[in-house]
Write a structure and sequence with these properties.
two-stranded antiparallel sheet, 148 residues, elongated, 9% strand, mainly alpha
């Protein structure tokens, strides 16, 4: 998707509204269009980032990434690599005690149920994703603005 097409479309829409009034309305519409031209690309990236994060959270394996190259934005599915010694390969004999709030425990149970897996499997998958060697630092979202 080219973000400039969205921005140009919004500019055209605002200009069309400006043509409905006198010179003062047209000037105000032009100012509004200029502000939108600067803010809309960031808003689009925020929206896509949130959508990618929500989709990734629903996927049993893999994640959705946003790829930005100049004006082009693409969403891409990236499959998780199986970590050697993971659930399928290892003996799951290690134990740990985990204390959770009731609210978090309920959310974990709901998510596990929604994915059709046990709470244990859900927690293992989540931990494997979060500790995989492909680490990206803190979190998996990129926010901000870039220029080329």
């Amino acid at each position: 998707m080219k973000m400039s097409l969205v921005v140009d479309g919004l500019r055209s829409d605002v200009a069309a509204v400006g043509e409905l009034g006198d010179d003062a309305v047209a000037e105000a519409a032009e100012r509004i269009a200029a502000v939108l031209s600067r803010s809309v690309p960031g808003r689009i990236l925020d929206l896509l980032s949130d959508a990618a994060a929500e989709l990734s959270a629903e996927l049993p394996d893999g994640r959705v990434e946003i790829r930005l190259a100049g004006d082009d934005v693409d969403l891409a599915y990236v499959a998780d690599e199986r970590v050697p010694g993971g659930e399928a390969d290892g003996d799951l004999s290690a134990r740990i005690t985990l204390r959770l709030s009731e609210g978090l425990k309920s959310r974990v149970e709901e998510r596990a149920s929604g994915e059709g897996v046990s709470v244990n499997t859900f927690i293992l998958r989540t931990l494997e994703r979060g500790t995989s060697s492909r680490g990206t630092g803190v979190g998996n979202r990129l926010r901000g603005y870039g220029t080329t």
